[in-house]
Specification:
Blueprint: H1 11-19, H2 25-38, H3 40-49, H4 54-71, H5 76-86, H6 92-105
Length: 106
């Protein structure tokens, strides 16, 4: 399965299934595609945010962005790269929310 066509409505469910070695073949292929494309970045990202609910995740993202803006290391291209990395794991509704947040951040 091509990762671009994979869509999981809840990233936490996907992560939990991966941790429990309970992925379908399609999901395993999708995860391997992400790992091939992004290496340890995807594992670090999943590890950091896997247990956060939506509100916690949004708060953490804004906290990171504000810190980067304060210390002069904010790069809008990083946000786009991160968004592209996680987009395949999001539902359409989640993708729309993410795009709204990105627009607020930039």
């Amino acid at each position: 399965m091509d990762i671009k066509n994979y869509n999981n409505t809840n990233v936490n469910d996907f992560v939990k299934k991966a941790q429990d070695n309970n992925l379908t073949n399609e999901e395993e292929n999708a995860l391997n595609d992400l790992k091939d494309k992004y290496g340890s970045q995807i594992e670090d990202l999943i590890g950091k945010f896997q247990n956060m609910n939506e509100a916690e995740l949004i708060t953490e993202v804004f906290k990171i962005i504000n810190e980067k803006k304060r210390n002069g290391t904010f790069d809008p291209n990083e946000i786009d790269k991160l968004a592209e990395m996680i987009k395949p794991l999001l539902s359409e509704e989640q993708k729309k929310k993410m795009e709204q947040l990105i627009n607020l951040i930039k």
